[in-house]
Amino acid sequence: MKIFTCGPVAMFPAVQKVRERDVLYFRSKEYGQFAQNILSRLSSLLGNCEKQTMIPLACSGTGAMESAIENCVSPEDRVLVINGGGFGQRWCDLLKFHNVCFESINLKWDEELSEETLKPYFDRGFTMLFVNLDETTSGKLYNSALLHNFCKDNGMMLVVDAISSFLVDDFEMDKSGMDLVLFSSQKGLCCSPGCSFISVSQRMKEKIFSKKSYPSTFYFSYRDYFNNVIRGQTPFTPTVMIMYEIDQMLNLIKKSGGKKEWIKSIEKKATAFRNEASARGYTVPSYSKSNMLTPLLFSDFSAFDFTLLLRKRGYCVTPCGGELSEILLRVGHCGNTTEKDGIDLLDAMDEVRREVVK
Length: 358
Ligand SMILES: *Cc1c(COP(=O)(O)O)cnc(C)c1O
Prior knowledge:
Strand order of the largest sheet: 2-10-9-8-5-3-4
Number of strands: 13
Strand content: 15-25%
Radius of gyration: 20 Å
Helix content: 25-40%
Low-confidence stretches: none
Structural class: alpha/beta
Largest sheet: 7 strands, mixed
Bound molecules: pyridoxal-5'-phosphate
């Protein structure tokens, strides 16, 4: 099966191979140093220069999102959310679940965030902005400079779910004024699912430590993680095997020439696919897109049924949920695929279309 999903993605053989290793005992100096080394390499890839401001969590991305709310939001905060699809909606659902008062900027699935959209939210007393840098449900990429300026002008903290953007789209945490960035192992990192990371700015770290109320989560209380991470430790058992995978993955990225080259190679795959798909008559929406995936718009055949037919031919692309399931499918560009694989996929898509679309 050729995998064009948006996470977990097709893994690299060298990364899969580390699963054969023995599990290192984690309460050891050796593991602590190993973990610290990974966190420090991840921090520099993320563009966060401050030390010991990244922690690992043993959960998928949504767990990391939930933990960010519990650890960072105080009762006096006024929260604003960019809700431009399924993952923006997830921020809203989580905030609602945790009884946080918030307002959301609701965008249609293909509607871009612009200066114009943000204008009515200036000087309204908001203290925090929650956003998904890439709204993976449609591949819509928000403008990080726009978000940065908005937050700076309004004295707001910027909380970013970069789950499908880290190591896929070019952004730097510090330079983009982000106060919390979270990502997980199974998207841009191309590893197994199950591990997430939280990186915070110095001022966010201070906010977390000075919060009067302790978060209502025991397992995900950041203060304990920050105290432990000084020794490369976590309060509870870490995902040792995924850390092995990440170590190997970071070696691959380094060997390829580093972060810039790595991202460029994904961008190249995405651009080649988009150009060829458009040339063959497929509709690629025009909003600004993450390199993570290409959305393809269907009007004459169910996009969801199309993904099933492709799977029968050995190609796994990503269907959409909810209101988009009939009209949109997503082709992932991250992971162990080549430009040629993308062209082969288009050949298979053409064949399916010839058979089913009258
Ligand atoms: C995948 C994804 C998530 C959810 O992650 P899980 O690992 O399924 O919990 C959240 N936000 C974005 C932007 C994603 O792409």
